[in-house]
Amino acid sequence: MKKSLLLILFALATLAGQAQVNSTTALLGSWSGELKVGVMSLTLVLNLEQADGYVIVTLDSPDQGAKGIGTYKEYLSDDSIAVKVEMLNVTYRARLKEGKLDGTFTQNGMSFPLVLTKGVAEVKRPQQPKPPYPYTTEEVTFKNEADGATLAGTLSYPIGYDPASKKKPFVVLMVSGSGQQNRDEELMGHSPFLVIADYLARHGIATLRYDDRATAASHGGDVKNATSEDFMRDAAAGIEFLRNKKAFKKVGCLGHSEGGLIAFMLASRKKVDFIVSLAGPGVKGDTLSAAQSNRMMELMGQPAVMTVEKLRNDSSLTSNPWLRWFIDYDPSDDIRNSRCPVFALNGDRDCQVISSQNLTAIQRLLPRTKKNLVKEYPSLNHLFQHSTTGHPSEYKSIEETISPEVLQDIVDWIDKLK
To answer: pLDDT, tens digit, for every residue of 132-166?
Structure first.
């Protein structure tokens, strides 16, 4: 469920920092490269900019949506650099060789080679919508008063929306997966929620996507000790906000991963008129997590030896409030009590929420009704991209953000509810 692929690396945050002063260097500009750990990799960008006569060095992790991470310069010349990010216990030391920065990235005592090349490679994302959009958007905020959280988001109205018309559109609140993410659910250079919102707006359906609490433009609300129940209250506040606008015929929820879990929680509490669960859990958290670990090990050519018992005895997991809650959470009752229409979907190459385990459970637990749809998609991974293995290391290299078939199926299913 958790989105971070390389736990030794950066948290999804932009950290402030100060750099020592240097008047100039021949290394000015941006340098990028791939940090490889086993079969996984992470793009890093080192930026050297001259400001007010001094050189400022920052670090970006574009795959994780982190930009402008401040560094402390230990050394900087025309052919060498050594920088540190103290809050992350990170250092990078490199020397210019044959036009490249050839160096070593170290974090928490572990070191990896990291070669950076001048410039930043263009990432191809053909589905990424570009403004101007043929529909209206509105920047909004809503509050979860109980948790002291103010959530900021984008409300996208469908093409041709007329507030004076008696014909009101359906609207979907979008809830992201685990880990603090922005309203676009930005990950590995992809913006799935932006792509979905754009597609729905072009096909007659409104959406509200928002930054998670204490992330981007949202502020307030405890994150350190928060669980899915806390995040569910954020989503419920969004649903209430949409209902109070009285601009929509039906209010639904589309959730991805943990967001799919939250969608079922909202449905069982009769907060929504319909839900779309993208790779939402269908089994107890400890069972899902053990299966996830084993699938990852199998793809890396290692023995699949994780058991529920081993997982529950791992103190590093149980000391985390979110994980402790998730491991104990069984979604069966929430799924069983979801009386509104449900579209539950997953890809058969999802390595994080395994379709054969979770989608089968959802199918079994859901109330029997013609309005419900459970569908598995061949070759799709956890992000609903067409993939080769489904391993998260592929996310970045795949140009497709989300399968066009999935986008069309979501629209077709919602249209049938009208």
So the answer is: 999 999 999 999 999 999 999 999 999 999 999 99
- pLDDT tens figures, 373-390: 999 999 999 999 999 999
Confidence category of residue 22, pLDDT binned at 50, 70, 90: low
Helix axes 192-201, 404-417, angle to 10 degrees: 50
Is the separation of the CB atoms in 331 and 283 below 8 Å? yes
CA distance 356 to 349: 10
Name the pTM for this structure. Answer: 0.83
**Cα distances (Å, whole numbers) of residue 258 to 38, 173, 178:** 27, 14, 5
Would you give the distance in Å from CA 216 to the centre of its chain? 13
CB neighbour class for 313 (10 Å; exposed up to 12, middle 13-18, buried from 19) = exposed
Contact 88, 10 (CB under 8 A): yes
β-bridge pairing 171-175 and 206-210: parallel
Tell me how far apart the alpha carbons of residues 112 and 105 are, in angstroms, rounded to a whole number. 5
CB 46 within 8 Å of CB 31: yes
Output the CA–CA distances (angstroms, integers) from residue 129 to 87, 114, 161, 246, 409, in the order listed: 35, 33, 19, 28, 19
